[in-house]
Fold:
Amino acid sequence: MIDSKTLKKAFHAELSKVGCIRKGSTWYLRNDEIISMVNIQKSNYSSLYFLNLGFWLRDEEGSLYPPEEDWHVRTRAEVLWRTDDANIADLLNLDVPYENDAARLDEIRCFVRETIAPFLVKGATLVGLKSLLSNPSKFLIRRDVWRILGIDDSGSSPMY
Structure:
């Protein structure tokens, strides 16, 4: 049976390849402008895991390891899922039976390598992050960074 430690090792194996640093259940990819982050969150009620994705604009505040609740831009990995990724939710729900643990971990690593890591890398620059935010309704964006990100103040994006 896969446990939290094994799942985090699988994430770390892929995310460290693009330069992410792990602290707890969060991986940080830093550059001069932005810190890109992914956080694994376990449900309180089951063995279901959620993937929180976010970005921290370094010019705004000086934290090297911003906590998930303070991220300037946040979303869940579900916004990245294609229709053929429908089984990702099942892969991250360790209560759902799977053919075997090795196959589940391979699928998770593939998703991290092919989807999560490129998303974090792209968002690690201001230009790349603005590109990812072409549909801001898929993200929670703190109002204090709207101007920097070129987001219209008309209220079309969720804010917090």
